Amino acid sequence: MMAMSDLFDAPVLPGLATAASFVTPAEELALITAIDAANLSPFRFQGWIGKRLTASYGWTYDFETGRMSQADPLPGWLLPFRDRAAGFAGLPPEELVQALLIRYGTAAGIGWHKDRPTFEHVVGISLGAPAIMRFRRRRGEKFERASLPLEPRGAYHLSGEARHEWEHSIAEMDRERWSVTFRSLAIREPSPGRP
What we know:
Elements: E1 16-19, H1 25-37, E2 41-45, E3 48-57, E4 59-62, E5 67-70, H2 79-89, E6 96-104, E7 110-113, E8 119-128, E9 131-139, E10 142-150, E11 155-158, H3 160-164, E12 167-170, E13 177-185
Antiparallel strand pairs: 1-11, 2-3, 3-6, 4-5, 6-13, 7-12, 8-11, 8-13, 9-10, 9-12
């Protein structure tokens, strides 16, 4: 398993950037309190119910129907963090149009996946217990693998190769964890004859 950065802190996985101490301890506590107060629902995937609670703003993806739909706008308390996440990713704030709040209970994780192709940039803020984000991509009959420690109050940005060529997952944990993930929408080329 390879590390995410070398001795000179250059990313080993192209398209993956990290930032330590992205939020302060006081901001972390405020975010956790706000997430716990949000209207969280169990994560559902094709009849299966996950061990994590979620809420989406801006846009939501229904894994039961396979459709995107508009959701409630991002609440005001999230906007300063959205703006900070956009600055970290080098994007205008208004491009981060979706926010996903997650509360992971004990024994909760996320299986191998790539974010929906509807989304482009992914910026996550990790809160509470530390976790490991695992990466893999198929190379012939085997997988190339990497891992990234997600420290409390840190952030990561997935774009380019890390976003599109690698799957990621989070191993089950024995402590509670929270996260805020901001996403931009992918820019689609217009169909011939359509604007």
